[in-house]
Amino acid sequence: MASMMQPQIILLKEGTDTSQGRAQVVSNINACTAVADTVRTTLGPRGMDKLIHDDKGGVTISNDGATIMRLLDIVHPAAKILVDIAKSQDSEVGDGTTTVVLLAAEFLKEAKPYVEDGVHPHSLIRSYRTAGNMAIQRVKELAVSIEGKSLEEKKSLLAKCAATTLSSKLIGGEKEFFASMVVDAVLAIGNDDRLNLIGIKKVPGGTMRDSFLVNGVAFKKTFSYAGFEQQPKKFLNPKILLLNIELELKSEKENAEIRLSDPLQYQSIVDAEWNIIYDKLDKCVKSGAKIVLSRLAIGDLATQYFADRDIFCAGRVTEEDLQRVAAATGGMVQTSVNNVIDEVLGSCEVFEEKQVGNERFNIFSGCPSGQTATIVLRGGADQFIEEAERSLHDAIMIVRRALKNSTVVPGGGAIDMEISKYLRQHARTIAGKSQFFVNSFAKALEVIPRQLCDNAGFDATDVLNKLRQKHASGANYGVDINTGGITDSFANFVWEPAVVKINAINAATEASCLILSVDETVKNPKSESAQGEAAAGAMAGRGGGAMRGRGGRGMRRR
Ligand code: ADP
Ligand code: MG
Q1: pLDDT tens digit string along 484-500?
Q2: Is residue 551 scored above 70 in pLDDT?
Q3: Any residues with CB less than 8 A from the CB of 91 and at least 6 apart, and which?
Q4: Of 95, 352, 438, 453, which residue is most buried, by most CB within 10 angstroms?
């Protein structure tokens, strides 16, 4: 009675929207399931692509989980976590982005009935964490090392990993062609961690098969002035000078104010300008370089000057390309032409300007340090080439990972089935509720082979039963994407680097535990309007936003 008399305690500001308890956990799980449903159909070699168009009219066709998740612009706070793990998977290992989202959502889906029945999320979380760790341990045990093989063997092994990644993409039809190209490119750059050493240049037109790999650098011909056509377009063993200065006549007499007392002095001012540029050009020529590249403009005077002396030049080369030329040819970018010594000049075996489709390309091949490679991609529509680039990026990352960690596991759901079986066996030894939770975790792992079947139009129940039976005696069997039956994935070279699976299981477990542990969301309406204010009046918005942000956090902590 007395408690009823007490005034109501008002904790949150008026208008604050809260929801809490079991219902909140369940609603978060539902949101995550909805997100997973949108990318579900893209998994595997028979997966479908998504076409996403934004309000600016940009159209993207993609099969890549991370790309789709990023473009979807998800607003649900809990479901955003799935976007984050897809992104982190993309940057950590580069592949398996759909897998990680599906796994996380499936873990949650399996947990949902328990939460609804009143199981405390922390019991679930504890079991999931243990199960996740055991699963990762098991993947590590089962992984097969490719260390200690000869280069040729290693190459073909890596090509198989790349082919598995590419098989689920738009360019899957030419996977062997691209896989060997990717492996060559990655091996070319060696142990260097900089991804941008592998350039991908897109040239619309032609067919996929017209794509080629340059063992060195290639970039599109830059803007050029009259006289350019007289320059030689092919050199053997040329010296290359890389600059970051302008080689252009600066008509300062038009920009600057000059006071002259004697009309004769005027000529000397004009002459001075010409002398400066001729001096610069002369020094470039004297350095012995046959190719001059600059990040800044090379004007018509310089172009003519070089043409007369059989030197090739290109101005306005992008920073990235210039750096790659520097890395490949062993040259150093100069900011002055004084004192150009031989050591700062780069060199390569062959330089050539070639026609590729409608574009002309400057190609430097046979570079001494060999630490760059460029893939020139050909194909029909723009969207197609862009998706091809994204797919190649996945494959490049995978080959690099495989090269670094050098362990692989069978794909096509084989490893997932094996882990699932292992966890089920372990669950039987557990007394108490935890047995159910570990079992659910094991069951959730089967989502990968099941989805591969669904996407290919196979009878998932039938295939999964066969797989379970095979795996009872321990096997590398996975879904056979060609016949709708089962096959030894390992023997058929459907391989994935072990890190893809390890990272995916880890991230998915973490994400699902995180989402299970949230039982309340507080939406502070003021913080939303603060953003509006911020847009309108910077000062007011900033002050108000900071205040409210602090207040909001305090409240949630209570
Ligand atoms: P993700 O974004 O997770 O990499 P993908 O669409 O690339 O998703 O699909 C990857 C899945 O497809 C992996 O589980 C892989 O084992 C499987 N897979 C790839 N190639 C084959 C194949 N030839 N046969 C069966 N499964 C395959
Ligand atoms: Mg993939």
Answers
A1: 889 888 888 788 888 88
A2: no
A3: none
A4: 95
